[in-house]
Amino acid sequence: MTFGTSARLEFALEDLCREILAANGWNVEALEFPRIDIIATEPTSSDLIAFEVKYTRSPTYPTSALRISSERLIESAHAAGINKAVLIVATDIKPKIKAEVEYQYKIQVLNLDDLLSLASIDLELLGKLVKLREIDLSERNLDSNIKNIIQPATIDQSLDSSSSDENEKIGNSFIDALRAIPLGKDGCYDFEDTVSNILKYLFDGDLSGWHQQKRTTDDLHRYDLICRVIDNSTVWKFISLNLDSRYVLFEFKNYKDEIGQSQVYSTEKYLYEKAKRKVCFLISRKGPSENAVIACQGAMREHGKLILNLDEKMVIDLINSKISGDDPNELLFDKVDKFLMELPR
User: Which InterPro entries match (predicted)?
Assistant: First the structure.
């Protein structure tokens, strides 16, 4: 099995958290339970604590993902017979939201400053964390009283997990609907509508507008969906600021075969630098042909227009990321980053 950059970074963060806990006197257990990243024993007692670790490049973590992660962690801890839980999110979390989540779910949430403070017990571990998160340590607010940072309460056994259950139900229904759409012309409108709704489910807090089926003024060309970018997460901030694209297009191709270079050239016509519209996600069932990939590379290299291909499998991966309480923007960033890093001369 191959993993993207975000998955590898999350695994690396999990391993680093194990080292940080051990350096602070915690006994990291060799026990394994589904959907629990780390199980460790408190230094001052024999209580087992369940830890879930979330990695993100973004400066904040989506509140909805934070709540879903909390509910899923509690469910997993209950199943394992563990009464205390800690959610580690390696980014900043607004104090009000952190307090609300901790009060509602009776778990402890550790943010990036908490984790940095715990890592400061060992300069090598601190250096690894700073490098992993690509941050400036001088801008962080560390707590010198590290022995009292991890103080989880006892989990509320009467937790209402309806948000997590509903999110999973919605996500799985989208996956089933997407897979059931027939390939080709017969399913083109269903594909367009279904994927549009999936995008709203995934990126509602990152995009706005959601204007569908617009015809250009020359009455010849149509694009399926246009959105305005909100600079909330790293990938959309990169698109908006670094690529200077305040708007993004989405094109839907329900073809039986891989899309060809002609579809890329057609899509490229909808992108305009002066209109701050330089990015398009070309979503298809089977993905791009080799010639289509070359055409996308040429559009970026010669005209600064970013056309990224997402196939059905990638869309399902994004949905599963949302179901699990992760941030789908991480997978999308991987896609953008890989394309630009591998762009040939």
Answer: Restrct_endonuc-II-like (IPR011335), Restrct_endonuc_IV_Mrr (IPR007560)
Residues constituting the chain: 345
Grouping H, G, I as helix, E, B as strand and the rest as coil, residue 331 is: helix
Domains of the chain: 5-160 (3.40.1350.10), 165-341 (3.40.91.50)
- pTM of the full predicted structure? 0.86
Residues 90-144 pLDDT 10s: 999 999 999 999 999 999 999 999 999 999 999 999 999 999 999 999 888 898 8
Alpha-carbon radius of gyration of the chain: 22
CA distance 67 to 63: 6
Q: What is the 3-state secondary structure (H, E, C) of 165-229?
A: HHHHHHHHHHHHHHHHCCCCHHHHHHHHHHHHHHHHHHHCCCEEEEEEEEECCCCCCEEEEEEEE
CB 118 within 8 A of CB 75: no
Show the tokens assigned to 252.
Answer: 């839907």
CA dihedral of residues 121, 125, 131, 136 (deg, nearest 10): 0
Beta-carbon count within 10 A of 14 CB: 17
Residue 40 near residue 30 (C-beta atoms within 8 A) = no
